[in-house]
Amino acid sequence: MMKKLYVLPLICILLTGISFGQTNPTKNDPEAKKVLDAVSAKFKTFTSVQAAFTYKVENASGKALSTKTGSILMKGTKYRLSFSGQEIFCNGTTVWNYEKGANEVTINNVDPAGGTITPQKLFSNFYDKDFYYTLNGEKKIAGKTIQEIQMTPVDKKKSFHTVYLQIDKATQTIYSTKVLENGGTRYSYTVTSMKTNVPAADNQFVFDKSKYPGVNVEDLR
Fold this sequence. Notes:
mainly beta
């Protein structure tokens, strides 16, 4: 059985312990919507995005449990994620999840109604129907003016209860993201480098079995 991996938007970096507020929003803030709409519009101007990142897991008290690195390439609804012995390929309709240690690939259809936050999903207007959101305030971090938006899912059956976004006000891009699970675990992402509008052929987002000798294929479609 493959381990669960949150495929969050990776145009982001880890929250640095800054908190602008702790109340959970139960209605949508018009000022937060302006910021989110601007981020979505900016993201849609990129033909592709390539980023390297650090992924950090913390317990409920903020103690780091693990830190790993990875990379991602996004193009439209397609993405390819390499992360700690795991590779995920998505061509927009099919997802291949390859685990190097087991030399196994699991194949699934993309579920548009699923609860997973894909790299692209956060940059569409999905937040209007899936989340309550509020703008917590602004903060200077490393010389940047950062806006924080706190989001809570409308569906309380989700495995997470809060998503924090920090957005670079000048560039209108996501600076950091953090997901708080109901069990107390926190998932954070830090982008260490990012390039936009890089060449990305469609075959880069499809799992090529010939490149993985002896791979065991589990097709769940």
